[in-house]
Each structure stands twice: as C-alpha cells, then as structure tokens.
Amino acid sequence: QVQLVESGGGLVQAGGSLRLSCAASGSIFSINAMGWYRQVPGKQRELVATITRQDSTIYADSVKGRFTLSRDNAKSTVYLQMNSLRPEDTAVYFCHCNTYPVRVGGSYDYWGQGTQVTVSE
Fold it and tell me: Residue by residue, what is the 3-state secondary structure of 30-65?
C-alpha cells in the first residue's frame, strides 16, 4: 500500500510559476515510477511527467522546457516545478505512482486526491 499526499496547487497568472509536491508513504521501496498526470472536464487524464526508479524521466511534449520533475534522496517525494505557466495548463493535477512488489507480484497504481492548478490570462 502506498499513500500519496499532494500540495502546491493554486491560482497564478500566465507566465507565473508553481511547485507541486507529492509525498509517498507506505511500501515506498516497491515504487517503480512516480509522476504527475492532469485532467480537465470532458477530457482524458494525460501524463505530464514521470520519473522511474532508474532516474529516467519522461515529459509531455507540451511541457518540455517549462516543467521540471525531481525527487528527494529517499525517492519518496517528487516535485513538479512549473514555470512559464499558460492558461491551457489549467487542470486538476494528480500525483501517481506505480509499484511492482516482487513478493506479491503484479503491478499496482496509486493516485493522489488531485490538486487544482488554475492559470489566468
């Protein structure tokens, strides 16, 4: 079991910055990847950025060069630094992690509660 606690959402003007944080607890050593997704009403949830246990990062094309994903030394907390924000970045952002518990087998996904990011023009 993994619990995810998010923080850092809010309202900013276009061109501004926000930093989202997600702290994982529980079976954190089973985590294979952590990252962020976002979703707006009427649309599917989409990947924003993710980082693997091996420190490989993947970014959506729409955020490359503007967003940076990082994590602490314990690899239990991830941060999404969002710069040069645009109105189209407005969405509910969800922290996500994927686990691969060797002793149990299978792959499991966990989600945070979501945090609203609103970018005004």
Answer: HEEEEEEEEECCCCCCEEEEEEECCCCEEECCCCCC
Distance linking the first and last C-alpha atoms of the chain: 40
Q: How do residues 90-103 score in pLDDT, each as one tens digit?
A: 999 999 999 988 88
Given a contact cutoff of 8 angstroms between Cβ atoms, the answer to whether 56 and 74 are in contact is: no
Helix H or strand E encompassing 93: strand 91-99
DSSP code for 82: E
d(CA 32, CA 6): 19
CA distance 62 to 82: 12
pLDDT of residue 73: 78
* Three-point CA angle 21, 27, 114, nearest 5°: 35
